[in-house]
Design brief:
9 helices; two-stranded parallel ribbon; globular
Amino acid sequence: MHLALLDTFRARWTQTIHDEWMRNVLQNRPDLRREQLGRTQKLMNAHVRDCLVEDYESLIDTLELPDANDRHVLAAAIHAKADAIITFNLKDFPNETLAPFGIKAIHPDAFIVMLFDENAALVISAIENQQKSLKNPPHSMTELLETLENNGLNETVSRLRQMF
């Protein structure tokens, strides 16, 4: 989110994507409440310009992916004229299926590394902003980097550790 807030890329999502991430967070974090995540959703929509993709649903049934439940993501990407889908779930977004639409599936780690290569200062600023925003409980930069690494952002963390 902090990378999107600095306009390093144009983030786009749908209400269905919001519903999915909130459901998954609540499964993994029973200490959180849906109302808290709803506040986060509202802040995301309010602070990232032109982020909410709508009126893409008619495309869903025309698409084929290994997991039919992911078609809404591709439909939204096509409708938004996105260049990429940033996802940990690469196997369900095969590039040969996405290529005719001019879209690539990119792992978040590879995506952030690409942003780092384009403008390291902005990525460093975003991570510093993220660390400062963690107040309840606060996290040191070391703790934040460990969390990112535990979430599969290994190359990103490797580069950031050289900076901090």
